[in-house]
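Q: For a teaching handout, I want to show students what a protein-ligand complex looks like in token form. Below are the inputs, and the small molecule is adenosine-5'-diphosphate. Please produce the holo structure.
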Amino acid sequence: MQLVIQNLNKTYANGVQALKDVSLTIRQGMFGLLGPNGAGKSSLMRTIATLQEADSGSITLGDLNVLTQKDEVRKILGYLPQEFGVYPRVDAVTLLDHLAVLKGIRQKGERTDLVNALLHKTNLWNARTKNLGGYSGGMKQRFGIAQALIANPKLIIVDEPTAGLDPAERNRFLNLLSEIGENTIVILSTHIVEDVKELCTDMAIINKGQVLYKGSPADALAEVSGKVWKKAIAKAELEAYRKSHHIISERLIAGRPVITVLSEHSPEDGFERATADLEDVYFANIFGHAKPEPVA
Ligand code: ADP
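A: Here is the structure, written as tokens, with adenosine-5'-diphosphate included.
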């Protein structure tokens, strides 16, 4: 099954054009949708999740028309929104069981088996009788995945799930997602390049409502490989370099600015060729036609 998005457009009532002619084909596995805040990721995720109308374009999931056959799509969709609220005074077992009833699983034994399996899968078994209000950020996110998996979805959408998680929780969460991605379409929307780098087989970079890149992370890297140059400079030189070079990123390393430039040939003495990183691809796309955010 594939999710095919064609020429999708959305302009909000305030005139913001959040999606501009977006076309993407998303296969089974983990798909990373990468872009800065305000890029249009949530607008796209909400539209795919049947929660928002598009102005024009089409989305199909297998044989289903996502924009018109909403009830059918919802039966095979798991959605974890950016702000995922839980009932604080209920434990995981009780809430999952209740949600399973709402999903139409009437037989008690079947529900118990399912809830237990989900709690094990999401590593929440030991915390199953604890009230959700006492869960950490990572546990809440994993609970979000457990509830999204109740319907055995064919498509799972997770919107910015790792924001606010500590590194160990983030790892655990991403590993869980990649396990699920083995037989489902999982769309991970994020502004964190690392999230996409390690796990996604396909990706897209979006900014200001437009798809700037689509392909595999490996192909993205190959595009800039050998063209990434870095140089540590003095803070006082930064302004001059901004004028003379097309800088794609500026970072402080041990208090000194390190600038990155994309170029076929060595920009000048002092620049060293660096191993391309997915972050370089990201910045090259995002800041390809604009100035980077200054570091100082
Ligand atoms: P992202 O998820 O990548 O941060 P969003 O899809 O939330 O991006 O937002 C894309 C753009 O659309 C932003 O400029 C945002 O301010 C605007 N936007 C999002 N939702 C609405 C809305 N309901 N009404 C008006 N503008 C919106």
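A: Two things your students might notice: The longest strand covers residues 17-26. The chain has ten helices and 14 strands.
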